[in-house]
Amino acid sequence: MKTYTRFLFSLFALVQCAPAADGVPDNQLRTLGKPDAPRFDIPEITWPDTPGKADICLWKDDKYAAISLTIDDNCRPDHDWWLAQAEKHGFKLTWFVITDGVDGRNKGFSGTWADWQRLADAGHSIQSHSTNHHAKKKDGPPVPEEELHAMYRDSLEAINSHLTNNVADCIAYPNGESHEDIAAQYAIACRGVYGAPNAVNKINYLNVNEGHYTQGYINVLLGGEADSPKWLNKPGKPFRRGWCAVLHHLVHHGRTPEQIAKSVSDCEQRLENLAKYKDRIWIGTFQAVAKYGQERDTATLATIDAGDARIALTLVDRMDDTHFNEPLTVKVRLPDAWRQLSATQGGKPIQARFIEHDGHPYALVDAVPDRGEIVLSPVQ
Q: What pLDDT does residue 221 have?
């Protein structure tokens, strides 16, 4: 008999979708907006209890929480330093770039397209901070709508036309001034500047909060540590297992050598602290985490065969397949006799890791929604 399991986060009635262009199928959404209510109850890490049963992990590799390290305003003087830190700790970073300045008169700060290609070739993510960083001034008129369209559209097009090994489809709003209805026509996700982590079941993907980079926020995401301040342990812990999109500007900053040295030292110490949690926190690019979350929030997982010699699953979501290609981590309970496994999706090999919990075998399988049937087989 076929057995079916639905991904517990797929409460379609609660998922609020950004306006889609006429004719766009409901299963090919560019982005999700802000939900009217929590999309799901925040789980702890789960362990399916019968062979063939499977869940989609809340975060990649079944990590407890997620953090993205982002840098605004180009900050060319910091590039070498960030590359060294990223290599040291194994992080991948996200730069939100003001594109009109690239190859301009202030190349020392804004960089050249060759500078940004170097970062993309190192595996980092280059995304849009608009063309010109124009935002409404205090007591001034709003930015004209036609200019906002150009700021978002043209910056993404500039990055994609100049860089290889990189796809730009995310935006950081200049000064945090959000225009979600316009951005939704061009981006899969946008970052704001409201200083807080993001509750994993209430993420507004068109205005993702940034979080002040403190050790306290790491403790919030991990559900609170024994030595954390009491306010981090409020009942309900709304940011437990959440996503913190950390915002940086120029690190080598200060008027004196002593101030610059302190700024750099403080940031290096925060990165050292974060690296201690790599086994529990997914440190992913803004784009990767935004893709994973939206795929997860609209996904349906089904077990269609659960035998001793074969487990077969289907995984589908409602997101645009031309943009959303981030593998979801699927945790599958295996028959007790299995000690190793192979995995395919649509007939092609995919990554799968064998793990054990409480004496039972499991697999962590990396699968992209809508790419065909997932088949697990034992390997002697």
A: 74
Tokens of 280: 């529990």
Q: What's the number of CA atoms in the CB half-sphere (13 Å) around residue 140?
A: 8
Paired strand residues for 203? none
CA 331/CA 55 separation, integer angstroms: 5
- Identify the CA nearest to 132 among candidates 161, 94, 158, 169: 158
Backbone angles phi, psi at 137, to 5 degrees: -80, 155
Average pLDDT of the residues in 17-46: 80
Confidence of residue 23 (pLDDT cuts 50, 70, 90): low
Give the list of residues 6+ apart from residue 246 with CB closer than 8 angstroms, or none.
67, 68, 69, 70, 210, 211, 212, 213
Q: 1 burial class (0-12, 13-18, 19+ CB within 10 angstroms)? A: exposed
CA distance 286 to 194: 16
pLDDT at residue 11, rounded to an integer: 36
How many CA atoms are closer than 13 Å to the CA of 75, on its beta-carbon side?
23
Q: What's the whole-number average pLDDT of the chain?
A: 89
Q: Which residue blocks in the chain are alpha helix, DSSP H?
A: 79-89, 107-110, 113-121, 145-162, 180-183, 215-221, 257-275, 286-297
The answer to whether 182 and 152 are in contact (CB under 8 A) is yes
pTM: 0.91
H-type alpha helices, 57-141: 79-89, 107-110, 113-121
Q: How many other β-carbons are positioned within 10 Å of the β-carbon of residue 24?
A: 13
Closest Cα partner for 311 from 376, 372, 238, 230?
A: 376
Measured on CA atoms in the order 72, 189, 89, 195, is the torsion positive or negative? positive
**Phi, psi (5° rounding) for residue 259?**
-65, -40
How far apart (Å, rounded) are the C-alpha atoms in residues 91 and 82?
A: 10
Phi, psi dihedral angles at 354 (to 5 degrees): -90, 130
DSSP string, 339-374: S-EEEEETTEE--EEEEEETTEEEEEEEE-TTS--E
Q: Counting beta carbons within 10 angstroms of the beta carbon of residue 216, is it exposed (0 to 12), middle (13 to 18) or buried (19 or more)?
A: middle
Q: Which residues contact 352 (CB under 8 A, 6 or more apart)?
A: 341, 342, 343, 363, 364, 365, 366, 376
